Amino acid sequence: MNSFSSVSSEESGIEGLNLLDPLGSLRGLHPEISMGMKKLPGKGKYSVVSLYASQFRDLRTRFCSSELDYIASLSRCRKWDAKGGKSKSFFAKTLDDLFIIKEIKRTEYDSFMKFAPYYFRYMNQCYEQGNQTCLAKVLGIYQVTIRQTKSGKDAKHDLMVMENLTFGRRITRQYDLKGALHARFNSAADGSENVLLDQNFVNDMIVAPFYVSRKAKRNLQRAVWNDLTFLNSINVMDYSLLVGVDAQGRELVCGIIDYLRQYTWDKQLENWVKSSLVVPKNELPTVISPVDYKRRFRKFIGTHLFSVPDRWCFQRSSKPCSLCGVGDE
């Protein structure tokens, strides 16, 4: 979980990270663990395959309390109506509210399989070097195959397990931010159950703004800078910054989500069509190249997230203040 108040204060970064270096042992085939074939009451049999099993297990040892607790959480889930997304994907949430399970598209699955070694390397380096990150952690990818008893046909489902960024929080409002304003307004959203978009965020910051300290904003910007440098290096775009307002805790909870999609030919075609036919002049569509997406995303955070000084100075003197360096003229 990442919130403005809990991000490390160290100004660490990943500018020196070369993600194109040889990956050594990660280059080979990733280990798959099949959990066997089981019976599904009334629907036939099913099997589960755990992708990148050892790498995900190593990652969970750093971010989960224990492997047994993780398994116990996944064994008790409920279907969850995640409002705000356009994909209409299947979502579930563990009963302890720790994890979210999402069915991902085949294109997202294929993209992750390509950049997975770099993802594990990046997350491990952030952990070991103390680099700030606000990526919502993906903790497992599973392929579930259901074989129908009568037809004998197989139905495959690719599932992703990720941390629940809002665990333990009382979220009153939440935003899905992509750094674009065109077609990014949710007129029907009201309350914590609905997800607001970029134009909603800009409007709310004008009418009833909320502020963070300069230190907290710098920490968030550093984390976003690190993560977007990484995502650009693996050709990923169309991600979002999920921002939740915890009014009771007086905090903003944030994390980058939906970062499994690479800038493939179909996304390039979508960019061309929207730029030519849909989006007004002087505006960019939501889907643009990873480099342009990164720049727009960083600019939006820097412009529309307001901050206040970490310390307030009430000194009135001709001598420069020791805190702010400013004196009366």
TrEMBL record:
<dbReference type="Pfam" id="PF01504">
    <property type="entry name" value="PIP5K"/>
</dbReference>
<dbReference type="GO" id="GO:0000285">
    <property type="term" value="F:1-phosphatidylinositol-3-phosphate 5-kinase activity"/>
</dbReference>
<dbReference type="GO" id="GO:0010008">
    <property type="term" value="C:endosome membrane"/>
</dbReference>
<feature type="domain" description="PIPK">
    <location>
        <begin position="1"/>
        <end position="305"/>
    </location>
</feature>
<dbReference type="GO" id="GO:0005524">
    <property type="term" value="F:ATP binding"/>
</dbReference>
<keyword id="KW-0547">Nucleotide-binding</keyword>
<dbReference type="InterPro" id="IPR027484">
    <property type="entry name" value="PInositol-4-P-5-kinase_N"/>
</dbReference>
<keyword id="KW-0418">Kinase</keyword>
<protein>
    <recommendedName>
        <fullName>PIPK domain-containing protein</fullName>
    </recommendedName>
</protein>
<dbReference type="InterPro" id="IPR027483">
    <property type="entry name" value="PInositol-4-P-4/5-kinase_C_sf"/>
</dbReference>
<dbReference type="InterPro" id="IPR002498">
    <property type="entry name" value="PInositol-4-P-4/5-kinase_core"/>
</dbReference>
<dbReference type="GO" id="GO:0046854">
    <property type="term" value="P:phosphatidylinositol phosphate biosynthetic process"/>
</dbReference>
<dbReference type="InterPro" id="IPR044769">
    <property type="entry name" value="PIKfyve_PIPKc"/>
</dbReference>
<keyword id="KW-0808">Transferase</keyword>
<keyword id="KW-0067">ATP-binding</keyword>
